[in-house]
UniProtKB/TrEMBL annotation, chain A:
It comes from Pediococcus ethanolidurans. It catalyses: D-ribitol 5-phosphate + CTP + H(+) = CDP-L-ribitol + diphosphate. CTP binds at residues 7-10, 80-86. This is Ribitol-5-phosphate cytidylyltransferase. The lineage of its organism: Bacteria, Bacillati, Bacillota, Bacilli, Lactobacillales. Its EC number is 2.7.7.40. The keyword Transferase applies.
Automatic annotation (TrEMBL), chain B:
Pfam families: ADH_N, ADH_zinc_N. The gene is tarJ. Catalyzes the NADPH dependent reduction of D-ribulose 5-phosphate to D-ribitol 5-phosphate. This is Ribulose-5-phosphate reductase. Keywords: Cell wall biogenesis/degradation, Metal-binding, NADP, Oxidoreductase, Teichoic acid biosynthesis, Zinc. GO terms for molecular function: ribitol-5-phosphate 2-dehydrogenase [NAD(P)+] activity; zinc ion binding.
């Protein structure tokens, strides 16, 4: 089975003074989260589309989905305190609801990346059928500098540098096994889900993203996102 | 939904633009799969239109010949996964007299209105038609052009007199080939003669009764009716030749687009009582006609498969640009992109 998991657990701490988490802010005619989910419901291969949101926004999320989305595959559950807890909450839901099989896969995506395209979703699904883990990336445009204590200690060759986006996809059983192998300390510092698999020695396959597949994290991002979106003009 | 539309913004330059689409209850969502390039698209791409036209129409998504897969239909008239041909003409009203493709104020995709180079296309239910599964998808991609042929031959049938002995087709390009292939179905008893400028192209018309280079037409040769499929600067020469080689009371169907006005020998048109009738684009009915002919007649389908030119999967704007360039230098056939962008 193929599952989608929309990670909408963020509370918008980087979004300035806005009280409402960024995934619920409007973009074009609908909230960002809805724009993102609409792309996923058009993919018929998903058996379920699990939206993971903050516990205190559960009712709001459900209200929005019932207003805009007419697809029984979409379900809403609550996330954890960190990104990977949120991811694993979704996995636990899948296991309890549908059971877990060797070839089950999950396509996880940030709710605040509404510019995802059909091509990226399709490439991710195809790739995770033959790879344990899949990461969506674009080649780094800026030079990446590694530093600590106000000192540059490494400037890696840009040709080998990429910027990670989502979706990230996993064989669920192997992801679960890899996650359970992590120490508490490793779990605390992990900011990326694909790294769970890397630490467990699994290969992570790369899928080409798009520069336009931006993550709306700051007020500046939102301004750009709103500037990008046009209305359909009938001549 | 946020839809990516791949628009031509200036000569040889496409950009992805995001449109906030809202589906209405009488629309469906189609994922384009095979997109066929028309000469009109090439003219926009290479900037071979007047600056005034380019300024008025760009940015605009190109391509008006395409098939796709239904992904969502709120009315469930179509199932998800069905292959459909998309009709580029979107009439804004109906007329009991004027055919839908000749109505004014129509929206025609890739001509002032976004074409099919989009992530998803939102269309009215009546603007899609199911395609049989056994159709070669690269051939099905240019169903629109085949429907243009159906429109022209239907118009000819309506206008022509009882003399159906010889049908002459001027033009050895894509349109000439499509018209000739369909003419075999429309007029099975008629003799089919093709007139062209390139012997290597005329060699593809193996099903025609006779072919002639336009520089080598026997003076005594006459046709009952003729279809002009040349366009451009060749239109004038072709129309002149037709007038000289057509029997009295014959019908000349004009199909080729000439950018500039051309001269016509009206003296002979009058003397011979000829009918000149223009035919452009097509209607839903013509799409249905085209699909019916192709479904019933595997020979015509096979012949039209011979018209498939360059084909390639495209998954980025860079690949689209390179495909348009490759197609522009191709000497035969319709260029078709497998749309995976």
């Amino acid at each position: 089975m193929i599952y989608a998991q929309i990670l909408a657990g963020g509370k918008g701490t980087r979004m300035g003074n806005t009280a409402m988490p960024k995934q619920f802010l409007p973009l074009g005619s609908k909230p960002i989260l809805i724009q993102t989910i609409e792309k996923f419901v058009l993919e018929k291969r998903f058996n379920a589309i699990i939206v993971v949101c903050p516990s205190d926004w559960l009712t709001h999320t459900k209200d929005l989905i019932s207003k805009f989305i007419k697809d029984s595959r979409v379900v809403v559950i609550t996330g954890g305190s960190e990104r990977n807890d949120t991811l694993m909450n979704g996995i636990t839901y899948i296991e309890k609801t549908f059971g877990l099989h060797d070839d089950d896969v999950v396509v996880t995506h940030d709710a605040v990346r509404p510019f995802i395209t059909q091509r990226i979703i399709d490439d991710n699904i195809n790739a995770v059928m033959t790879h344990t883990a899949v990461d969506t990336v674009v080649p780094a445009i800026d030079t990446i500098v590694r530093g600590e204590n106000e000192q540059v200690n490494e400037i890696p060759i840009r040709e080998y540098m990429y910027q990670g986006q989502t979706p990230q996809c996993f064989n669920i059983k192997k992801l679960k096994k890899a996650f359970n192998q992590l120490t508490t300390e490793q779990k605390e510092i992990l900011s990326d889900s694909c790294k769970i698999c890397l630490l467990a020695g699994e290969e992570v396959h790369i899928v080409r993203g798009e520069v336009s597949n931006i993550k709306i994290t700051t007020p500046y991002d939102l301004k750009i996102a709103r500037a990008i979106v046009e209305k359909r003009v009938v001549i | 939904m946020l839809n990516q539309v791949y628009r031509l913004v200036s000569t040889r330059q496409f950009e992805s633009q995001t449109i906030d689409e809202n589906l209405t209850s009488n629309e469906i969502i189609v994922r384009p799969t095979y997109l066929s390039i028309c000469k009109a698209d090439q003219r926009y791409f290479s900037g071979n239109r007047s600056q005034a036209v380019l300024n008025k129409k760009l940015p605009m998504a190109l391509i008006h010949e395409a098939i796709g897969t239904v992904v969502y239909d709120p009315q469930n008239k179509f199932s998800a996964g069905e292959t459909v041909a998309m009709i580029p003409n979107t009439p804004s009203h109906q007329s009991p007299i004027v055919k839908e493709n000749y109505l004014t104020n129509n929206h025609f995709r890739s001509s002032g209105y976004d074409g099919f180079m989009q992530e998803y296309v939102f269309l009215r239910h009546d603007r899609v038609i199911k395609i049989p599964q056994d159709f070669e998808p690269n051939m099905a991609a240019f169903t629109e052009m085949i429907s243009v042929g159906v429109q022209a031959l239907t118009n000819l049938k309506e206008t022509m007199d009882a003399d159906q002995d010889i049908i002459g087709i001027w033009g050895d390009g894509n349109l000439g080939y499509i018209i000739a292939s369909l003419a075999k179905s429309f007029f099975p008893e008629s003799k089919l003669i093709i007139f062209g400028r390139h012997q290597y192209k005329l060699d593809y018309f193996s099903f025609a009764d006779e072919t002639y280079l336009v520089s080598d037409i026997p003076p005594e040769l006459k046709v009952s009716h003729a279809l002009e499929c040349t366009g451009g600067s060749g239109s004038q020469i072709a129309v002149d030749q037709i007038i000289n080689h057509i029997r009295p009371m014959g019908t000349i169907m004009l199909l080729g687009v000439s950018e500039n006005p051309i001269e016509i020998n009206t003296r002979l048109v009058l003397e011979r009582g000829l009918t000149l009738r223009g035919s452009s684009r097509s209607s839903r009915e013509d799409f249905e006609g085209a699909i019916n002919i192709l479904a019933k007649d595997c020979k015509t389908r096979e012949r039209l498969c011979n018209l498939i030119g360059e084909t390639q999967k495209v998954s980025s704007i860079k690949e689209v640009v390179s495909f348009f360039e490759k197609d522009s230098t191709s000497s035969w056939g319709k260029g078709v992109m497998r749309w995976e962008i």
